[in-house]
Amino acid sequence: MSTTVKSRTPTKELARSGGADDDSGQEMMFLNGSDTVTTSSGDNQSLRPIPRALAAEAGPSRSHPPVAVGLPKSVVNDAVLQVAESLPERQKWDNKLQFMLSAIGYSVGLGNVWRFPYLVQQNGGGAFLIPFFVMLLLEGIPLFLVELALGQKLRQGSLGVWNIIHPWLGGLGIASTLVAFLVGLYYNVIITWCFYYLFNSFQSPLPWSTCPLDSNGTAVKECTAASETAYFWYRTALDISPSVDQPEGIKWWMALCLLLSWIIVYFITMRGIQSSGKVVYFTALFPYAVLTIFFIRGITLKGAGAGLAHMLQPQMHKLLDPTVWLDAATQVFYSFNIGFGSLIAFGSYNPPRNNCVKDTLILSVCNAATAIYASIVIFAILGFKAVRSYDLCVQHDKGLIGERFPGLVVNGSLSDEAYANFLEFREESKDLGLRGCNLEAIMNESVEGTGLVFIVFTQAIVELPAAPFWAILFFLMLLALGVGSQIGTLEGVISTVFDIQIVRGARKEAVSAAVCIISYLIGLLFVTGSGEYWVKIFDSFAGTTGLIFIALLESIAVMYIYGHRKFSQDILQMTGHMPGPYWQITWRFVGPILISVLLVASIIYRSFDKPAYYAWNADEGKSLLTPYPQWVLIVGGLLATLSVLPIPVVFLLRRFQFHRLDTDINKGVIRRNETTISTKQMMTDVDEYGDNAIEEEDEEEALGRLEMTTSNRTFTIGHRDEH
Questions:
Q1: Which pLDDT score, from 0 to 100, does residue 562 have?
Q2: Distances, alpha carbon 355 to alpha carbons 157, 358, 360, 582, in Å
Q3: DSSP symbols for 381-427
């Protein structure tokens, strides 16, 4: 049996199930907007009317729903049953601590250890904290809350969230997933490097503490030209090629470490938060334990005070440099991992009444405090290394002066005062080959990223007593930081893939395995001789400008398409508190403006500054700045384009109704046919503890929420007869 309902009036109507033959009293809506709906067995079931409780669980559509008026109760029950069977249950965190630790492990990553200290050193020392905290308040915290709250309210991953806000924005979810996938590819390679160093730390002396010998019994020339730690990194670990044009094959030892990395990531993420939620107790807490151990050891070392003074001494004139503020904004943006979609996924696993505002503030403070804490530890150790290097330099120079001018030697050594006077007043100092030791100059030698971790810091570790112990601790900490961030990044990817209709029936273990296998095969590119160069290419092009553009569109979509009033009401409903002026101003005005400035500055920088990379020169024992070849710039442009291409593609497909080309992702939620643009408000969510009690709305509010314009619409719904 089928029931046909025709609507010929283009006026506003309130969709209610029931009528004369229906006493269910539940509000009805369709999750997508095609004109004909058939739910009889064997026919098209792409569109079904469902009660408001299920609509809240599935996530409301942003399209205007067709109305269903006067349907018998049996029709409703049949449709509800089919929809309920098709909706997978959303995973949930076991407890609040598990969510907090997962978010901390995701947002607090390797950048807090090797990027933030470098920025502090380069941008005015303690003065850099001023623009950092300003950008944290105006950009980082508001955007963090937007993503967390969206996931919690809409109960969807990144893909579903943006389709719900408006189908034309569906490309945002795909774009953020692509960026997260590309970043995850090379981020796991960094974990691979940490594994290799960890395995080599179980020996004494450490293999990077001395230069290897050649067949003649002398130190290898490349090592003496560079340093022990630089040689181990570039030649022993990476076996790096002289340029990106020369891949020189896959390095089997790194390929095995990469395989180990992906196997570990798979077993952690294979069941979603049910498996990864258990691991975060280690990955989130262990780095703080190691940092504390290094802090206690570091401040007791000679030179730690000099390192901390160098870090904290403010250079206020640097605040007049606009690049300092851009660096601060960029650091805040990336340290919060905004735009990857993972925060949305994390929020979707929270209960609907969770206080996401409080979570945002706690996690933001934790992120910033960790970056500063890690910088204190790093500078304490680097201060020790700098003072030791200065002492060795002075000892070398004093030896040369004593040999040439023995009369200056008193009691078998040259005093510090005599050494300083000699450098200042004696012309002979220029001809002796003295190094001209200067502690401040040594402290100003800045390095970031892999250079800081695998060259500079490993050299400092060599100088410590019981060096293997400290090396093991250090690389275990880096592994915990890296794995914690990788879990979050992959969760954003896997949750989106799992939301695709054709994948929903698969086991999550199989989906995770497919993602990890594909990632490993692509990641073999990064363990060739030119692998480190490719890591830098992906880092420069895949996750920079495109990610900023995604964040800008997210901010505009939430505030001006979804609506800031509706979003504020959602926050009120979830937390019990209406967002105040701080949130309103930063969400609606300051945040979008700052991200726009950051985007424009990034585009201008890439337009006028020709991209280059540091290629290792074995003869000179150092990296030389080398322009990228033209083909690399083309590949980089393709990577940058790929990360944002889904946004205009999905918009055009849905704007001009290319239905055959518009893949039905998340079926029953995002399809929108022949309807007008809508900014329809969301339906009220289900109770936090999962019961089916739904708050009743008054007639006027319901009318506003289900507003639509139709003309000659026909809906056909099959049902079972009740006997």
A1: 94
A2: 19, 6, 9, 17
A3: HHHHHHHHHHHHHHHHHHHHHHHH-GGG-BTTB--HHHHHHHHHH-G
Question: What CA dihedral angle connects 409, 413, 418 and 420, to 10 degrees?
Answer: 140
CB 265 within 8 A of CB 484: no
The angle that helices 564-575 and 356-404 make with each other, rounded to 10 degrees, is 100
Cα–Cα distance, 702 to 64 (Å, whole number): 13
Q: Which of 187, 179, 182 is nearest to 647 (CA)?
A: 179
CA atoms of 332 and 112, how far apart (whole Å)? 10
Q: Which residue has the tokens 């570039």?
A: 234
Residues 6+ apart with CB under 8 A from 238: 251, 254, 529, 531, 532
Q: Give the C-alpha separation, 203 to 213, whole Å.
A: 18
CB atoms closer than 10 angstroms to residue 14: 17
* C-alpha span between 59 and 170 (Å, rounded): 14
What is the 8-class DSSP label of residue 434?
-
Q: What is the largest CA-CA distance in the chain?
A: 118
C-alpha span between 707 and 705 (Å, rounded): 6
Measured distance CA(213)–CA(595) in Å, rounded: 53
Compute CA 33 distance to the chain's CA centroid, rounded to the nearest angstrom: 34
Relative to beta strand 713-718, strand 622-627 is unpaired
Q: Which residues contact 667 (CB under 8 A, 6 or more apart)?
A: 46, 501
> At 539, is the secondary structure helix, strand, or coil?
helix
> CB-side exposure of 211: number of CA atoms within 13 Å?
17
Q: What is the C-alpha separation between 564 and 584, in angstroms, rounded?
A: 8
Q: pLDDT below 70 — which residues of the chain?
A: 1-89, 411-412, 425-433, 435, 446-448, 659-723
DSSP helix/strand/coil, 668: coil
CA 544 to chain centre: 11
AA identity, residue 280: V
Q: What is the pLDDT of residue 679?
A: 35
List b or e across 593-617, with b for residues whose CB sees 16 or more CB atoms inside 10 angstroms: ebbeebbebbeeebeeeeeebebbb
